[in-house]
Give the backbone structure.
Amino acid sequence: MAAPARTVAVPAISPKLLAAALLSVGVLLLLAYLVGFDQGAVSRSGMYLHELMHDGRHLLGVPCH
């Protein structure tokens, strides 16, 4: 004898919640890209972003050497 079919209620996702989730994922992907770019994993064009961040640290007075 087969088990009776069960229905599962799927909660509705509001457009605002969906937009916030997509924005969060986008920001996290952008952050991962920037970190990868900074470390030279994404770009072979050099260390432009790394040097920019390095100079920014110096401008803020943060020791890095």
